[in-house]
Every structure is written in C-alpha cells, then in structure tokens.
Design brief:
- It is rod-shaped, with a radius of gyration of 30 Å.
- It contains four helices and no strands.
- The chain has helices at 2-19, 25-72, 78-127, 136-179.
- The longest helix has 50 residues, at 78-127.
- α2 runs antiparallel to α3.
- With 188 residues, the protein is mostly helical.
Length: 188
C-alpha cells in the first residue's frame, strides 16, 4: 500500500509540474533576442554620443576660426567679399545644425534611458510570469518598434553629421580658394 501511495504522489507531482505555467520558448527567445539587440543599440548610442559631441565641437571651432580668418583678411578682392561672407555664414549654419543634433540627442537620451528601464522591468515581469501570456507578443512588438525607431533616428543623425562635416570641409576649401584671389591693385 505504501508503494502505491508513493507512486500516486510521484505521479501527482509530475502532473502538477507539467501543468505549471511555463514561459513559451519562442517568447523567451524573442525576449532574449530583443534584450541583446537593445543592449547593443544602447552601447552604440552611448559611444556615438561621445563622437557626436566631439565632432560638433570641431564643427563649431571650425566655424569660429573661419569667421576670425574672414575678419583678418585685409582688402579681399571685391568680387570675393560676398562669396567669402556666404561661405562663413554657411559654415556657421552647419555648426548650428550640429548643435541642434546634440540638443535632440539629449532629449532622445533621456527618453531612451526611460524606455530601457521600462523594457528591463517588462522583461523581469515576464520572467517571473507576472505578465499575461496573451499580452506579451503585443508588448514585445511595441518595444521592438521603439527600438527600430531609435536605431533609425541614430542612423539619420549619423548621416546628417557626416554631411555637415563634408560641408564644413568644402566651406574651408572654398574659403581658402576665395581668400587667395588677388587683392585689388594699388591697395595694401
């Protein structure tokens, strides 16, 4: 009789264990993949933040130097004056666009930190089975969408910054060309 009771208890435990809530393997895999990609994006964004600030500072100092160089020019060719001023203004405008990216980045960064916290909380709740299994896919899709939007925004900013840097290099080259134009004769 004791053996039958023990066997019945073992079977009961096995049945209860097999019926216990388990996290769907696909959901767990999706969650893990999203977490990995999220962390990679966070690292990329953080690294890029340092690059952004350094490169915008270089754009700004380049614009300041170009302005100072323009002011230091003595008697530039009259035909070059408007063009020189235009190049200096364009360089200053590009530097301002860089500063605007930094300001947008700061807002984005604060939001990204909040989203990362929300995602971490969600992941912990899923792992503890505190989230309805039916709602998990929709919430994962929402976080995936936020991640995709953020990655897209980072790529857009990177592209814009690269364009600004190219523009700045072109402005400097044009300035050098224009400032080398011969001064009017008879003036020193």
């Amino acid at each position: 009789m004791k053996i039958r009771t023990i066997i019945a208890a073992i079977i009961a435990v096995a049945v209860v264990s097999s019926c216990a809530k388990k996290l769907d393997e696909k959901v767990l895999g999706d969650l893990t993949n999203l977490k990995t990609t999220w962390d990679e994006t966070t690292t990329t964004a953080s690294d890029w933040s340092n690059t952004l600030k350094a490169e915008v500072a270089m754009l700004d100092s380049g614009a300041i130097k170009l302005k100072a160089d323009r002011e230091a020019l003595k008697n530039p060719a009259k035909t070059a004056v408007a063009s020189l001023d235009s190049v200096v203004a364009a360089c200053a405008a590009d530097a301002q666009k860089g500063k605007d990216i930094v300001a947008s980045w700061e807002t984005f960064s604060a939001d990204w930190t909040a989203q990362t916290s929300a995602f971490s909380d969600f992941k912990a709740k899923v792992e503890k089975m505190e989230v309805s299994a039916d709602s998990i896919p929709a919430q994962l899709a929402t976080f995936q969408s936020k991640l995709d939007e953020s990655k897209s925004k980072l790529e857009e900013w990177k592209s814009t910054l690269n364009t600004l840097k190219s523009n700045c290099d072109a402005h400097k080259a044009k300035f050098t060309e224009l400032s080398a134009a011969p001064a009017p004769k008879g003036k020193k």
